[in-house]
TrEMBL record:
Enzyme class: oxidoreductase
Name of the protein in question: phytanoyl-CoA dioxygenase
Gene3D superfamilies linked to this entry: q2cbj1_9rhob like domain
GO molecular function, one term: phytanoyl-CoA dioxygenase activity
Alphabetized Pfam families for the sequence: PhyH
InterPro entries: PhyH, Phytyl_CoA_dOase-like
GO biological process: fatty acid alpha-oxidation
E.C. designation(s): 1.14.11.18
SUPFAM superfamilies, per the entry: Clavaminate synthase-like
Protein family per UniProt: Belongs to the PhyH family.
């Protein structure tokens, strides 16, 4: 059974076993907040068919994986830097139309407000992509943790308490974030964004997404030595992989 909210759908009762839990064990030892893997390193693990069944409702039968992460939120140092400001995932993707993109976020253990669960603004996916910038928080914020500067602070939020194996599917315009980890353990989750293979790339120059392109290029040059003049489109073209059907545009 699933639980519906405005802009998201939660599927419960599924527990990842075998290889995915193995990846979670590796991440438990890592000191980082997030690790972004190429789709190759993620997709050698067979995707459960039930995930693609729901994804296809949003993307159509030809499905591309465009971004994958193992998320390992560490215990907070006391500066609340483990929290993630409210944002829209479309800010990171030079792909349209947004209605053919969906994120799948799976808890790898019990997650609640104590260890930094997701917080969403139901119905916010019906709006436009809003300008993002680094929030001016005391204690600072992690690189590429952009936040929306213009949203109704009185808008009701839903905090997603999830059990191991619960998965939430959400629209890339849904405004969401996560709290800081108050526990002594790491909060682990795995996520993948999918898009219809007939989606298309856009040029983000001159848009609010240009800051993401700049920071991603800087990180890519520092960590992997890739040219810093690569566009966000170039980065995504390298990362995306076909997971079902046929490749068309992406």
């Amino acid at each position: 059974m699933g639980v519906h909210f405005k802009g998201l759908f939660i599927h419960g009762g599924i527990t990842f076993q075998g290889s995915l839990c193995g990846l979670g064990g590796l991440m438990h030892k890592a000191p980082c907040r997030k690790s972004a893997y190429t789709a190759d390193s993620f997709l050698h693990v067979p995707l459960p068919r039930w995930i693609l069944k729901y994804v296809e409702c949003f993307t159509g039968p030809d499905i591309m994986a465009i971004h994958t992460m193992l998320i390992n939120k560490p215990p907070d140092s006391g500066k609340k830097t483990s929290r993630h400001p409210l944002h829209q995932d479309l800010h990171y993707f030079p792909i349209r139309p947004s209605n053919n993109i969906v994120g799948a976020w799976t808890a790898m253990e019990h997650i609640d407000r104590n260890n930094g669960c997701l917080s969403v603004l139901p119905g916010s996916h019906k709006g436009d992509l809003k300008p993002h910038a680094y929030p001016k928080w005391e204690g600072g914020v992690n690189i590429m943790f952009y936040g929306i500067q213009d949203y109704d602070e009185n808008c009701p939020r839903v905090h997603l308490v999830m059990e191991k194996g619960d998965t939430v599917f959400f629209h890339p315009l849904l405004i969401h974030g996560s709290g800081w980890n108050r526990t002594q353990g790491y909060r682990k989750a795995i996520s993948c964004h999918f898009a219809g293979a007939d989606c298309h790339y856009i040029d983000v120059k001159g848009t609010s997404q240009e800051v993401a392109e700049r920071d991603i290029s800087r990180v890519g040059k520092k960590l992997y030595g890739i040219p810093d003049d690569l566009s966000l489109q170039d980065v995504l073209r390298f990362r995306v992989r076909l997971v079902k059907g046929k490749r068309i545009n992406l």
